[in-house]
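Sample intake sheet
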Amino acid sequence: MLQSDDVLAAFARRIAEHATKTVPSIQREAVEEVHLFGWGHALVVPTPGSHSGTAQAARQPLGRILFANTDNDAAPAFENAVAHGARAAEQAMALLKQ
């Protein structure tokens, strides 16, 4: 099983070993923890109301602070980040004209 504790632990060890080979100044013993999450995959499954709730409220401007990233929606994706970036850029230009 892909998400078994043994598989995740082995993967964490490989990450630590790779880090010490990639960055020789890191001693293997210096790696105290590797946080690894065994999520199945990066597929978001929308539910009723998921696109009109907390994520959408949290992306609203806070004064002159604008938010633009993949997490501005309940369906994080590169395409959404680009759209939110364009929206934030337009909002920033409007704010600068005030």
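Comment: The radius of gyration is 20 Å. The chain has a mean pLDDT of 83.
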